[in-house]
Amino acid sequence: MENYINPVLKEEVNSKLEKISSNPEYYDRRKNLVIQELRSIGDVYSFWIENPALRRDLLSERSQSKALRKLAMHGIQNVSNAWYYLNQIGKFGNFVGELNQDVIKKVNKLVLGSKGAFNQYREMDVTLNCPGYTPPSFEKVSSKVKDAISRIKMMHNDYGPLESALTAHLALAAIQPFEDGNKRTSRLIQDRILYDSLIPPAIIPAGEGTFYLDLLCRTFPPYKGGDVDGQREFYDYCASKVNNGLDEILGDLVIEPAKLH
Q1: What does the pLDDT look like over 129-163, one tens digit per residue?
Q2: CATH number of the domain that residue 248 is part of
Q3: Residue 38 counted as domain residue
Q4: Structurally, how many domains does the chain consist of?
Q5: Phi/psi-derived region of residue 29, left when phi > 0, alpha when psi is between -120 and 50, beta in every other case
Q6: CB neighbours of 256 closer than 8 A, spacing ≥ 6?
Q7: Which of 51, 72, 107, 224 has a CA positioned 20 to 30 A from the CA of residue 176?
Q8: Model confidence over 189-245: pLDDT tens digits?
Q9: SS3 sequence of the chain
Q10: C-alpha radius of gyration, the chain, whole number
């Protein structure tokens, strides 16, 4: 089996998960609080990552800032609504088994709110301005999503929930099945797979949005070509965000200020 994630990083994640699962009486409450907090922060970041122009306008403090904040509030609520829907799918521990095209379409519809078209993939070809990569034509979207779901389930069985979740993120973003909200949709599916195994979400801060989008562009060509080494930077980047969440749960990096003197 090939290593999608750096083995040292994967071992660190696994050792933290094992420590948490072997001490539920100590970590369960903190784990639930941390995951809930990260999820809420993630909804905010997820909206802003895909709306950088809107954020620039807001930061410029133009006269319409009140209207922009209201627009952002609705967008963030849409992400939250999609997350709530996802949590109703599948019995605990079986979300991947319940994942299908209708679920993905419904998530995108909720992410886009009133702008979304339920049960509908894009009906035109798109470009991403990513050197060496163009998403599949709209005629192939349905079959590509079906293939992606099969791959997600294969990764889940062969590698585990972490690789499966990150594969969902990458595969769906690469296909660009919808006219808008593709990355928000793919990150929500990713985090639902993680949550199904009580793994904290892979939260990408809005301030790292440019790096993240560039990383996706760099990763799409090797993903299409099946080059695992070329995909590793993306897997490691997202896995490191999960690792950060585990640090928050363990709390082992916290030192009281009095002890620093």
Answers
A1: 899 999 999 999 999 999 999 999 999 999 999 99
A2: 1.10.3290.10
A3: yes
A4: 1
A5: alpha
A6: none
A7: 72
A8: 999 999 999 999 999 999 999 999 999 999 999 999 999 999 999 999 999 999 999
A9: CCCCCCHHHHHHHHHHHHHHHCCHHHHHHHHHHHHHHHHHHHHHHHHHHCCHHHHHHHHCCCCCHHHHHHHHHHHHHHHHHHHHHHCCCCCCCCHHHHCCHHHHHHHHHHHHHHHCCCCCCCCCCCCCCECCECCCCHHHHHHHHHHHHHHHHHHHHHCCHHHHHHHHHHHHHHHCCCCCCHHHHHHHHHHHHHHHCCCCCCCCCHHHHHHHHHHHHHHHHHHHHCCHHHHHHHHHHHHHHHHHHHHHHHCCCCCCHHHHC
A10: 19
Alpha carbons 108 and 125: distance in angstroms, whole number: 18
AA letter at 155: M
**Among 255, 257, 261, 250, CA closest to 20:** 250
By C-alpha distance, which of 128, 138, 139, 157 is closest to 223?
Answer: 128
CA-wise closest residue to 34 among 160, 165, 203, 196: 203
Task: Please write down the HEC assignment for all residues of 29-68.
Answer: HHHHHHHHHHHHHHHHHHHHHCCHHHHHHHHCCCCCHHHH
Q: Of 54-58, 234-238, 252-256, which one has max mean pLDDT?
A: 234-238
Domain that holds residue 235: 7-252
The contacts of residue 40 (CB under 8 Å, 6+ apart) are 80
